[in-house]
Every structure is written in structure tokens, then in C-alpha cells.
Write a structure and sequence with these properties.
This protein has 202 residues and is mainly alpha-helical. 70% of the residues lie in helices and 8% in strands. The strands form 2 sheets. The chain has a two-stranded antiparallel ribbon.
Amino acid sequence: MLEPHLFALHSLTLKQMAEPSQLADIVGVPEAELAAQLEKAEADGTVLARKGKYMIGPTGREALDAAYPTAFADLRSSAAVAEAIESFETGVNKQILDLTTQWQTKEIGGEQVPNDHSDPEYDDRIIDKVGRVIEKTGKVLRPIADADPLIDRFLERLGGALTRAEGGETDYVSGLRVDSVHTVWFQMHEHLLRLTGRERPE
């Protein structure tokens, strides 16, 4: 796996222009430890900093690209992992993207229009379907989670977002300003792509 300095850089591929506290919440590393690594990375030029927020720089990305094949060699050579990521891409990932579209729009009079969330029954059906996909995702990704515990953290965060959405905080389905299902899913997908060396589907 990645040593602490590179892991700090990796965290910035999951949320750019972020404070250490935000990154710590994503990857489960103590904030002080992550902040120290980011300060070192700023000093060596692999990250950029502005007003307490960090962003990975070109040399940081090059360092990660060079490190990933070795750091994740065992994981990338696993047939079970390859099968799991394929099932993820062709199954639950497409399902969650489709449900996000259904959440954001709805068909009225044969036309797709923005969902104004005035129909709680429609919204509840979508949230219920999202919950079933998240449950299935935990099973699909188990071979990868067994090799990389960060996957379980993503799944826990997805569950937390779902619980808030079920409780009426609808921003937690696809809102961009909170750790919504959509936001956490995007971060998890990015992490999976970097673990496995795959490209993000167009």
C-alpha cells in the first residue's frame, strides 16, 4: 500500500482544494497526521496550498502514477478483484448513475423536467432503490474491501448519507455541498480506479 506521504497525496485526488479536516474524514487518518504530511508535501512542491486548503500539483500526480503499480501490485493481479471491479462498473455503478438522474429529473407529459421534489412518494421510491444498490455494492466490493479497508469506510459513509436522506435531508442524495450519496460514490469510484489502474468510463 501507499506510504503516508503518498497516501496524503492520494487523498487529494478524492477531494481537491480541501482542508486537512475534510481529507481526514474521507480517508480516516487523524487530521494532525495528515496535516503534517501535507505541509511536507507543500515544502517539496508536490502539493499547492492556499488559505489552509491543499491541491495536488503536477509533480504530485506524477509521483502517484509512478507509485501505484508497485503499491497495488498484489491487488491488481487478483482475479477476484478484477471480477469485483468489473461487476461494479457494469452493474451497481450504472445503477447509481441512473438513479441519480431519476432523482434530479422526472418525466411529465412525456418530457424530462427537473425534479422539484414536490412528490414525496416519487422521491421515497428513488431513495429506497438507492439503499438497495448500496447494500448490493457492499457485497460486490467485498473482495476489494478485504484487501483495502478504505472501501469499508466509503461504504459506511454511503450508509450515513442514505440515513440522512431517508430522514428527510434530501440534499444527501445528490447534493454537491454535503457528503451526499453522489459525492461519496464519486470519491469511492475514483479511489477504485486508482487502486485497479482502470480509466473512468466515458
